[in-house]
């Protein structure tokens, strides 16, 4: 199976404009992400999908590959499909890698690549255990419940499942909860299909695009990882990250 990894990189982030070009000890964030993805043993090609010439030029300057895409895409998923459509060659699967996690673990990328190779799987993604109540009840943290085989049943901003017979502060000890990490692998034809579907009721209710895919019957396989990673959403996040290096 030939697999391409695509890193969506927008310039006009509302909380951190120009984030892909932010400097992290002498190297831009987008270069750090790109080089981490290149360490994967399962990827045949890596490209950046951007809407800004400054990011495109920066990727070219360090020898990377980039594709210019529209600045009107509602999500990274849509940007990934345009980039795939503009990239020469055939790829059986596409990995959508977040461009704001400069130290993403290449083993996670390998794990995703392995999950998407199962014939029945349409989409693959990673989840990690939740161990504290602050994370569990944070609506900005997406939770997921899966079948015993790892097939995703539902994603929510609420804490799921609801534990009827336990106090809220006891939930992390009473049950194993999981948070969703926003990196995906798609079969290439599935990526094309899901970007053509109109937003669904559940998606609009929770503002989670993966619910559109579930509502339309697509098979989303989850894989458990213990490595949560550090994403950068704001300039403050970047300062905290640099202080940890």
- End-to-end separation in angstroms reads 36 Å
- Summarize model confidence as the mean pLDDT: 94
- Fill in the CATH topology of the largest domain: Spore Coat Polysaccharide Biosynthesis Protein SpsA, Chain A
What would CATH call the homologous superfamily of the largest domain? Spore Coat Polysaccharide Biosynthesis Protein SpsA, Chain A
Helix/strand order: EEEHEHEHEHEHEEHEHHHEH
Largest sheet: 9 strands, mixed
The CATH class of the largest domain is Alpha Beta
Which structural class do you get from the secondary structure elements?
alpha/beta
The residue fraction in helices comes out at: 25-40%
Distinct helical segment count? 10
Number of domains: 2
CATH architecture of the largest domain: Alpha-Beta Complex
Low-confidence stretches: none
Assess the beta-strand content as a share of residues: 15-25%
Q: What features would you describe in this structure?
A:
- It is a single chain.
- With 245 residues, this protein is an alpha/beta fold.
- It has 2 domains: 1-101, Spore Coat Polysaccharide Biosynthesis Protein SpsA, Chain A, CATH 3.90.550; 118-182 and 196-228, Spore Coat Polysaccharide Biosynthesis Protein SpsA, Chain A.
- Helices cover 32% and strands 23% of the residues.
- The chain contains 10 helices and 11 strands.
- The chain has helices at residues 29-38, 53-61, 76-86, 106-115, 133-136, 171-174, 188-195, 201-206, 210-215, 235-244, and strands at 3-9, 23-24, 27-28, 45-50, 66-68, 93-96, 123-130, 143-146, 152-156, 177-187, 220-224.
- Strands 1, 4, 5, 6, 7, 8, 9, 10 and 11 form a 9-stranded mixed sheet that branches. Strands 2-3 form a two-stranded antiparallel sheet.
- Helix 2 links the parallel strand 4 and strand 5 (66-68).
- It is globular, with a radius of gyration of 18 Å.
């Amino acid at each position: 199976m030939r697999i391409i990894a695509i890193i969506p990189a927008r310039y006009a982030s509302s909380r951190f404009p120009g984030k892909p070009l932010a400097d992290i000890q002498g190297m831009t964030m987008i270069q750090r992400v790109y080089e981490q993805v290149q360490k994967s043993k399962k990827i045949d090609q890596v490209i950046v999908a951007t809407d800004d010439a400054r990011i495109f030029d920066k990727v070219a300057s360090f020898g990377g590959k980039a594709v210019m895409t529209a600045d009107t895409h509602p999500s990274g998923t849509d940007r990934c499909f345009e980039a795939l459509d503009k990239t020469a060659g055939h790829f059986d699967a596409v990995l959508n890698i977040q461009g704001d996690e400069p130290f993403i673990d290449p083993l996670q990328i390998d794990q995703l690549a392995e999950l998407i190779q199962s014939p029945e799987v349409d989409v693959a993604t990673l989840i990690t255990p939740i161990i504290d109540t602050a994370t569990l009840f944070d609506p900005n943290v997406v939770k997921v419940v899966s079948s015993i085989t790892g097939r995703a049943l539902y994603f929510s901003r609420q804490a799921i499942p609801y534990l009827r017979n336990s106090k809220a502060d006891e939930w992390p000890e009473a049950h194993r909860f999981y948070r969703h990490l926003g990196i995906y692998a798609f079969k290439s034809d599935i990526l094309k299909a899901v970007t053509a579907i109109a937003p669904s009721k559940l998606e609009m209710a929770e503002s989670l695009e993966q619910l559109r895919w579930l509502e339309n019957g697509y098979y989303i396989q989850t894989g458990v990882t213990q490595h949560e990673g550090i994403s950068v959403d704001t300039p403050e996040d970047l300062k905290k990250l640099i202080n940890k290096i």
